[in-house]
Write a structure and sequence with these properties.
The structure holds 2 protein chains of 2 kinds. Chain A has a domain at about 85-235: Orthogonal Bundle (MetI-like fold). Chain A has 11 helices and no strands. Chain A is mostly helical. In chain B, β4 (about 65-70) and β5 form a beta hairpin. The radius of gyration of chain B is 18 Å and the shape is globular. Classes of the chains: A mainly alpha, B alpha/beta.
């Protein structure tokens, strides 16, 4: 029998301390092994590439420091256009995607036309390559001559919104359907309307379930904004292309590529952090 | 006492086990040894540490101090292979945790086939035999959601015992069941006791604890307050905390 009140401050025992030390050593060893094997892999790749017969030519054509320095300015100017398109498209996709997902989740025969329309929309725009949508919207709609003259970047943004909202709508719908039906029942039992139930109970939980997939779509969109260059927009890709035409050297493409990586890097890291946080919250405790 | 006499060999033993979640001490230096064929029932209020103790025994939670031995092997040694240790222990959870995408038979034979290396026909034959004796033979091909809660929990127990683990841990296995379904699950536990299975069980079913336990252990705030044969602990509790707890859950 133990006295409940006789609880003194606990200090880890020798045994526990030695176990912790052992675990730390095991971790250190794993990290070291991972680091060394990565190092070996990189070294092998570098050695193989540098020793290929065409390496000196490739180095001059793709990794020319002088041309890289020259092209940084114009390519960065173009990147600002990409960034603007990205921000506007992200907002547009969020709005249109949520609307489409909501339409598809409406119940009852009255809403059949809306449901069918939303389904047809997502089926169509997930099937058509983005490049074709860009051409159709970028050249086709201005040719109707019913809209005032807009810059090609505007139509490019519209094309991206139209395509990506179809993907995002499907992801959101999957999230909303993953919310347990008992949550709807509980919300309706409190007297909330169908719309209120969706807005206050289902969508917030559904979005949380698909955050990693949404982030993935966002990162993917981040580099697809480079495709608006086909409409003649002077974005980072187009700016690089102009430099390439000037110098007969492909280094500006590499520069543009690095800029796009730099653009998506924070988002990718942020995505990982968010996903890790969600996992931690949903699986409290446990080592398995 | 257990119908199968114990040889006194300690199957699972906790020594000075501590577990802390944040700054809350859930287990505060707990000692408990369970011998072969013994049925030990853990009682205590919610949050007293019953479930956590079972989880540390199955290496689902890592102890913050102390040791746990399974048939003499220190399973809290960081060098121990957790998977092979878990394979030697059967666990049944409050919410059954059957795999909804697998049939009853697939659920039951999964570990035997994938972990213990049984041949599929052998695992199948043994599982069907067990299901048959429990009156669940007709359910072998069904998916878990076609079964009642009591049936699901009995299937979960069969899943845990098919490979004859050294000890069976039962974590409040009747708490999520409708009252009329509790009986069939407890009947199965009685049957396991009759066969000599070593069991550590956390429960709120006091009358069942009294009937089936070889030893009842009362936990409070992560401390083993009092233990003994059921008649002693229920009829003549020694510690005021035990008296107080029993007066509130009066069986």
């Amino acid at each position: 029998m133990t006295n409940l009140s006789a609880e003194t401050a606990w200090q880890p025992s020798e045994l526990e301390l030695s176990r912790r030390a052992l675990r730390r050593r095991a971790t250190t060893r794993s990290v070291l092994i991972a680091f060394l094997s990565s190092l070996v892999l990189v070294a092998v790749v570098v050695i193989v590439v540098v020793n290929t017969p065409g390496w000196t030519v490739v180095q001059q054509t793709f990794f020319n420091p002088k041309i890289a320095l020259q092209s940084i300015g114009p390519v960065f100017q173009g990147l600002l256009t990409n960034l603007l398109v990205l921000v506007i498209a992200a907002i547009g996709v969020a709005v249109l995607g949520t609307l489409l997902a909501t339409l598809r989740s409406l119940r009852g025969p009255v809403f059949f036309p809306l449901r069918a329309l939303a389904a047809a929309y997502t089926d169509f725009f997930r099937g058509v390559p983005l490049l074709i949508v860009l051409y159709l919207i970028g050249y086709g709609i201005p040719a109707l001559m019913i809209f005032p003259r807009m810059p090609p970047a505007f139509w490019g943004t519209i094309a991206i919104i139209v395509t990506y909202s179809a993907y995002v709508a499907e992801v959101l719908r999957a999230g909303m359907e993953a919310v347990h039906p008992s949550q709807r029942v509980a919300a309706r039992s409190l007297g909330l309307s169908h719309a209120q139930t969706l807005r206050i109970v289902v969508i917030p939980q559904g979005v949380r379930k698909v955050v990693p997939a949404l982030m993935n779509d966002f990162v993917s969109m981040q580099k697809d904004v480079g495709l608006i260059s086909v409409l003649g927009v002077i974005d980072a890709v187009r700016a690089a292309q102009l430099q390439v035409a000037d110098t007969y050297n492909y280094t500006p493409y590499v520069v543009a590529g690095l800029f796009f990586i730099a653009l998506s890097w924070p988002m990718i890291r942020f995505t990982d952090a968010v996903t890790a946080r969600l996992n931690r919250r949903e699986q409290a405790g446990g080592v398995v | 006492m257990s119908p199968v006499p114990s040889d006194g060999a300690v199957v699972i033993e906790a020594r000075g086990v501590r577990k802390r979640f944040g700054d809350h001490d859930v287990l505060r230096g707990l000692d408990l040894a369970v011998v072969r064929h013994e049925v030990v029932v853990l009682i205590g209020a919610s949050g007293s540490g019953k479930s956590t103790l079972l989880k540390t025994m199955n290496l689902i939670e890592r102890v913050d101090d102390g040791q746990i031995f399974l048939s003499g092997d220190d399973i809290t040694d960081p060098r121990a292979d957790a998977d092979s240790i878990r394979a030697r222990i059967g666990v049944v959870f409050q919410h059954f945790n059957l795999f909804p995408h697998l049939t009853v038979l697939e659920n039951i034979t999964l570990a035997a086939r994938k972990v213990h290396g049984w041949r599929a026909p052998d695992a199948r034959a043994r599982a069907l035999e067990l299901l048959e004796t429990l009156g669940l033979g007709a359910k072998a091909g069904e998916y878990p959601d076609r079964l009642s809660g009591g049936q699901q929990q009995r299937v979960a127990i069969v899943r845990a015992i098919l490979t004859e683990p050294e000890v069976l841990l039962l974590d409040e296995i009747t708490s999520a069941l409708d009252p009329q379904l509790v009986g069939e699950v407890l009947d199965l536990v009685r049957e396991l006791k009759r066969r000599g299975t070593t069991i550590v069980m956390a429960t709120h079913e006091m009358s069942f604890a009294r009937e089936v336990a070889d030893r009842v252990v009362f936990l409070k705030e992560g401390v083993l307050v009092e233990q003994g044969p059921p008649e002693q602990l229920f009829d003549a509790p020694q510690h005021p905390a035990t008296v107080e707890f029993l007066s509130r859950v009066r069986h």
